[in-house]
Amino acid sequence: MRPRVEEVRIQGLGVIDEAVLELSPGFTVVTGETGAGKTMVVTGLGLLFGGRADPARVRPGVDKTTIEGTLVIEATGRVAQQVEDLGGTVEEGELIISRTVSAEGRSRAWLGGRAVPVGTLTYLADDLVAVHGQMDQQRLLQPARQRAALDRYAGEELVKPLRAYTQAHKRHKEVGERLLEITTRARERAQEAGVLRFGLEEIEKVAPRAGEDVELKEEEARLSHADALRNAATNAHTALLGDPMSGGAETVQDAITLLGQARAAVEAAREFDPALGGLGDRLAEAGYLVTDVATELAAYAESVEADPRRMAAVQERRSLLGGLIRKYGVDAASVLAWAEQAALRVDELDGDDDRIEELTREHDELTERLTELAAELTRIRTAAATRFGQAVTDELTALAMPHARVVVQLTRSQDFGVHGVDEVEVRMSAHPAAPPLPLNKGASGGELSRVMLAIEVVFAGADPVPTFVFDEVDAGVGGKAAVEIGRRLAMLARTAQVIVVTHLPQVAAFADQHLVVEKASDGRVVRSGVVTLDHESRVRELSRMLAGLEDSELGRAHAEELLEIAAATKV
Q: Vertex 282, ends 277 and 287: CA angle to 5°?
């Protein structure tokens, strides 16, 4: 199911006090007397889909203009998903869009019951409607739209190479970004590797051992207090064994002598109590232990000496280790752990060169592949552009623009884009002597509407848009050209909803539904409303448009003839 606009309510817009447009799926035409407010219908539709708000359009005497539209859309389609993503709701395939514009110029919008920025309506409109009002041709003036439409016009021939190009471009971009990242970071990584190597060299020169820092600290403490340590060991030895230099003239008994006396006392009575004998044995063990300690104290005292050269060597080694610890850890063991991890990291960083070489080779191959595919896309688009330009030019000839010529200009960009290297622009020359100019510069407002109609007819089916709105597409034409415009609008309505504001009966006769904007004078205030015409009322309206007289027999006969011709042409 194709989306379409089902109903539009307009309040307080220009001469329209309040009007309701019930729109058919096919070709709807809007007519009315001059000044009745036909153009306000297109203005209202434009506002509904994010058009620029002009507070001057707010009806005098009211606070704001309100436009509300009901759209029929596919409940699980892309538009419905976009609405839900924005927090709006779609109920039973119906979407409500609202827009208000205050007399002070403030504008607000709602989508599916949820307040949204007005720009959201403009974004959504790209998939819903193409409004072609006087000097308000927007959709196909966008280069991206022109390129996408040309691609669809090119047909199946373009599908496969474009898909291949898109896939190659995606990989090309990924590889390029990865290569840029590695190349850019290569300087940083090289610097990192250099720092790590410097650290490894420092550690290698010093060659620390785990725990060496603790050992050196202890040795420095011993060397610094050699005299105190020797005196302590000597005094302890003397206390245990006595002073051998005293010649036996001891004034204080040593520990060994005292232990011997204690043992002798116990031994004298041990036979009377085993418990006391056990204590005697322990005194004997104590004597042996004290003797061993005394011997070791003597040896220790002899080994301790002040060695200035060794002290200098220890201090120098501690200084070297301290420098490493300050940079790479908290002790010698952590410095060695850092060195182990640094060596692994250097190996990893050194592998970047191979990765860069591999990515560079792949990037070059992808660049060559993209160049070939882009050239193929350009060839196909160029051929399609020629066909398209000629088809639109032929349409313009039938639309009373026999001297106009439309061309599609392809220019090559410097970089690979998502869809190739082609920049597409539709241009028009109004007469043979005029150079082709962009559409918004090469045609007047009325001409531009006819150009857009011709383009839409040629693109019908290739660039599907659910709803087209044309305002005064027939400006400046009449007779046979007007009939051709009506016929082409009817052709366009076979695949889309078409809403047209016109003053020509030849165009109106081709419509599936005819709406008339009626005005009634209420003192100084003009009020307009919209009425759906049945067959009889439609004949009267066409007669008015033809002869200026609703009940003219000649006009009615001509109106009937127009309707018959249009009906026969549409079959």
A: 125
